[in-house]
Amino acid sequence: MSLAADAFVSQLAAAEPWPENATLYQPLKEDQILLSDCASSLAVQAYLRMCGLPVEVVYRANAEYMSPSGKIPFIHVGNQVVSELGPIVQFTKAKGHSLSDGLDDVQRAEMKAYMELVNNMLLTAELYIQWCDDATAAEISRPRYSSPYSWPLSNILSYQKQWEVRRKMNAIGWGGKTLEQVYEDVSQCCQALSQRLGTQPYFFNKQATELDALVFGHLFTILTTRLTSAELAERIKSYSNLLSFCRRIEQTYFDDKSS
Amino acid sequence: MAAAMELRCWGGDWGLPSVHTESLIVLAYTKFSGAEVTVSPIDWTWKTLTATVPELLCGNSAVQEPAQILNFLRKQRFNADYELTAREGADTMAYIALLEEKLRPALLHTFWVDAENYANLTRPWFASRSPFPLNFLVPSCQANTALSRILLTKGEAPLHRITEVEGKIYSDAKECLNLLSYRLGTANYFFGNSPTSLDAFVFGFVAPLHKASLPSSPLQSHLRQLDNLTRFCDSILAVYFSSDHPYG
């Protein structure tokens, strides 16, 4: 969206309170959704729960195509549609709900930097493992991605998505990496997050922020998703404070959710 | 350990030792860590098309990409991050990710995609530093790479038009510069009193934007308002790259 459209939407957003019938759309949970989308969706759900905003999760096979930016998840609130965690955080801020108001400028800079670290490393690694690793792509990603569609559309869509993701990986320089290097990058990212978290309950001590939601979404999904190899989950399990962080957020904000 | 190290990078101009961001990062880090490297600019050679820049040659091994080169230098005991705590090391990784995600697309756009800047500054500079007939190829190759990188990472499928992402990438870049300015505050360097790898990265990204004489750049005007960042670049240039030792 252009800047003018952004400003217009913020103004509209500020006008109305959060409705009861807000919905969050994501692909089908059992058969279709992939690791990276599931992580992003869980991050948004965690953030909305932390803000105390009710939202109903709706599963649709064509959620990716309904989304205004092509990315999952997106929320439908009132008569507006907003996708991805960044814009959703701004949208809720325009409605008067924010988790990071208590932070000063330097802390806010740190928070944004760490969120970019998670996006840059964890999300890219997830995409790489799903689509650039041939074994995972053939066994898990392509079948799952195309499961709602019949042949030959299923083949076309899944290969098209794979080609798109591989192009992007090449453009940012991840095309030449081996799987081992990707796992190593994930370890380093987790080490950085673990050191930043330390022994605190949340990244910015007592209050949960969007950074906590984002980290929880990614780590929890990686830990609970079955891939061709358990290496990724094992790398995360070696950081015990991250594990207890995930457990704490799950118990605090998701205890009414049936797992 | 004392094997001679040679660094291949783009040459310098506008008061900088190199106009290329990645090369600047590596050059700055070698100065900060006290590593002795001979710098061989690839200007006017066929390597302008074939080589991946920057590249560090040490004995038989060649290392590319700033992050890998910095790791290699650290293993050779040239470590500018020796005094950082674990938490500061984690912060370094996070801020580097912020630079890559938020600032790089706008810098690529300013130098390679913006028509006025490309035609008046970037293309003539790179064309004049490449031998015939590469001067026709090198700038346009790099411009295409830059455009496709911006569209693939920031463009929203399936539209993929540069005009739609321009506003967003520039506002992200301005926010990133503001965040760096808040983090730097009144200090000389980002961590304590001696420069570290994060200082090298920030210098590499910000210095070309600060020093290049761009015909049209709202981002450069925004940077000029952030005094502490411009002072940061100037002081690194004065202390580590003074005119009697432009390369080392």
Explain this structure to me?
- The complex is a heterodimer of chains A (259) and B (248).
- In chain A, helix 1 packs across helix 4 (85-94) and helix 9 crosses helix 11.
- In chain A, strands 2-1-3-4 form a four-stranded mixed beta sheet, covered by helices on one side.
- By secondary structure, chain A is an alpha+beta fold.
- The longest helix of chain A is centred in the middle third of the chain and has 27 residues, at 105-131.
- Chain A has two domains: 3-95, Glutaredoxin (3-Layer(aba) Sandwich); 105-255, Glutathione S-transferase Yfyf (Class Pi), Chain A, domain 2, CATH 1.20.1050.10.
- In chain A, helix 2 (35-51) links the parallel strand 1 (23-26) and strand 2 (56-59).
- Helices cover 61% and strands 6% of the residues of chain A.
- With 248 residues, chain B is α+β, with helices and mostly antiparallel strands.
- Helix content of chain B is 60%, strand content 7%.
- Chain B is built from ten helices and four strands.
- A four-stranded mixed beta sheet of chain B has the order 2-1-3-4, with helices on one face.
- In chain B, helix 4 crosses helix 6 (134-154).
- Chain B is globular, with a radius of gyration of 18 Å.
- The model of chain B has no long low-confidence stretch (mean pLDDT 85).
Features:
heterodimer; A: 259 residues; Glutaredoxin; Glutathione S-transferase Yfyf (Class Pi), Chain A, domain 2; 4 strands; B: alpha+beta; four-stranded mixed sheet; mitochondrion (chain A); Thioredoxin-like_sf (chain A); Glutathione_S-Trfase (chain A)
Number of strands of chain B: 4
Instruction: Tally the helices of chain A.
Output: 11
Strand order of the largest sheet of chain B: 2-1-3-4
Largest sheet of chain A, order of strands side by side? 2-1-3-4
The N- and C-terminal alpha carbons of chain A lie at a distance of: 36 Å
Query: Unreliable runs of chain A, pLDDT <50, ≥5 residues?
Result: none
Determine Rg of chain A (CA atoms, Å).
18 Å
Oligomer classification: heterodimer
* Helix and strand composition category of chain A: alpha+beta
Estimate the mean pLDDT confidence of chain B. Answer: 85
CATH hierarchy: architecture of the largest domain in chain A: Up-down Bundle
Q: Would you identify the regions of chain B where 5 or more consecutive residues have pLDDT less than 50?
A: none
Protein name (chain B): Metaxin
Pfam family, one (chain B): GST_C_6
Keywords (chain B): Membrane, Mitochondrion, Mitochondrion outer membrane, Protein transport, Transport
Family (chain B): Belongs to the metaxin family.
